[in-house]
């Protein structure tokens, strides 16, 4: 559905779990330096 | 962990009222109207976080609202002031929710200026504000066809600085003054032009460390890939371009998932590979419009 991209990606059956994990965070973590934010800890 | 790399500044109307007053005076009254209170900014940052919680997003990379960046307006000082005001607002919201929001800046890409004039703000975004990326508008003349495409050496000072700072750029156009397009259809057109112009140039050869993310799933390129594969095969004299197929070259870019359709997303993943794709929602915004076929 258009209001939940992740839900739509969750339901694309041709993706492997590793590919899905990459789309959701792994690829971003390899591209951006997000240390300051990941290290900030989620309340 | 869920990271959304495509979100835009959620700011109170007072910021945009200030922009309107600045434009009405063409900058003659300075930039004082562009201030926003801490309370208002916090309330709107909370709305963004609530919107993220609705869909399970842990961290969102927030950039200014592209269509409002007014790169083609004059005088250029207004473009600078407005980019700085947006970047400052994002930095303040990130400081309020550092575990949930990260900053992506905007350069003051005034159409009349040499791109080197945009770079001090880019440096400030990274070195002073701690931003992790920047928007790159491939068309600062906003639909007026006045500036060269991203394959031209006009852009090389920007590519040099991005490479030096080690940050990626999200290719995303802004407004559109061409009456034949809306700003939104111009996004798609400019994303297509960006990919094709860079792949028909020496940009990735001259800047091997340059990282470009194409917004909205890469414009029309994944859908039209047959045309571009054929085009690459017809090039008898590539003139210093990489000896690669179109598909191989295309995978030099990154792509976000702001497509809102399962068929389009599947086509993107199959065409460029899931390993080059990053979750993007544009939420709140286009990505929070309720789908009437699934809304309760």
Poorly predicted runs of 5 or more residues of chain B: none
Which series of helices and strands of chain B comes N to C?
EHHEHEHEHEHHEHHEHE
Largest interface: A-B, 34 and 52 residues
Helix content of chain A: 55-70%
Shape of chain B: globular
Question: What does this 3D model show about the protein?
Answer:
Chain A starts with a helix and ends in a 5-residue tail after the last helix. Chain A is built from three helices and no strands. With 296 residues, chain B is an alpha/beta fold. In chain B, strands 1-2-3-4-5-6-7-8 form an eight-stranded parallel beta sheet. In chain B, helix 2 crosses helix 3 and helix 4 runs parallel beside helix 5. Chain B starts with a strand and ends in an 18-residue tail after the last strand. The relative contact order of chain B is 0.12. Chains A and B meet through helix 1, helix 2 and helix 3 of A and helix 10 and strand 8 of B.
Any descriptors?
heterodimer; A: 43 residues; B: TIM Barrel; 8-stranded parallel sheet; 10 helices; 40% helix; globular
TL;DR of this structure?
With 43 residues, chain A is mostly helical. Helix content of chain A is 58%, strand content 0%. Chain A is built from three helices and no strands.
Map the helices and strands.
The complex is a heterodimer of chains A (43) and B (296).
Chain A: H1 5-10, H2 17-31, H3 35-38
Chain B: E1 3-8, H1 13-24, H2 38-54, E2 59-63, H3 76-96, E3 101-106, H4 119-128, E4 133-136, H5 156-165, E5 169-171, H6 183-199, H7 203-206, E6 212-214, H8 225-234, H9 246-250, E7 254-256, H10 262-272, E8 277-278
Helix pairs in contact in B: 2-3, 4-5
């Amino acid at each position: 559905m258009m209001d939940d991209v992740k839900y739509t990606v969750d339901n694309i059956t041709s993706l492997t779990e590793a590919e899905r994990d990459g789309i959701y965070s792994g690829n971003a973590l390899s591209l951006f330096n997000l240390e300051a934010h990941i290290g900030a800890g989620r309340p | 962990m869920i990271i959304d790399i495509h979100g835009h500044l959620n700011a109170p109307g007072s910021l945009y009222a200030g922009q309107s007053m600045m434009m009405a005076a063409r900058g003659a009254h300075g930039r004082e109207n562009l201030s926003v209170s801490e309370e208002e900014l916090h309330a709107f940052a909370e709305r963004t976080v609530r919107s993220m919680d609705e869909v399970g997003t842990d961290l969102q990379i927030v950039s200014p609202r592209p269509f409002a960046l007014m790169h083609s307006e004059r005088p250029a000082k207004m473009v600078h002031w407005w980019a700085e005001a947006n970047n400052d607002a994002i930095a303040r919201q990130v400081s309020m929710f550092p575990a949930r929001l990260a900053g992506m800046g905007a350069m003051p890409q005034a159409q009349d200026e040499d791109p080197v004039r945009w770079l001090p703000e880019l440096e400030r975004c990274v070195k002073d504000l701690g931003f992790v990326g920047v928007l790159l508008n491939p068309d600062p003349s906003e639909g007026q066809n006045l500036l060269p495409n991203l394959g031209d050496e006009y852009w090389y000072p920007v590519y040099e600085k991005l490479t030096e700072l080690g940050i990626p750029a999200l290719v995303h156009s802004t407004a559109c003054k061409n009456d034949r397009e809306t700003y939104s259809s111009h996004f798609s057109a400019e994303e297509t032009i960006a990919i094709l112009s860079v792949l028909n140039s020496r940009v990735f050869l001259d800047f091997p460390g340059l990282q470009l993310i194409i917004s909205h799933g890469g414009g029309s390129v994944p859908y039209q890939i047959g045309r571009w594969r054929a085009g690459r095969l017809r090039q008898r004299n590539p003139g210093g371009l990489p000896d690669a197929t179109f598909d191989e070259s295309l995978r030099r870019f990154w792509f976000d998932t702001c497509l809102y359709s399962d068929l389009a997303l599947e086509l993107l993943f199959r065409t460029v590979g899931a390993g080059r794709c990053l979750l993007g929602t544009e939420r709140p915004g286009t990505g929070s419009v309720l789908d009437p076929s699934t809304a309760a």
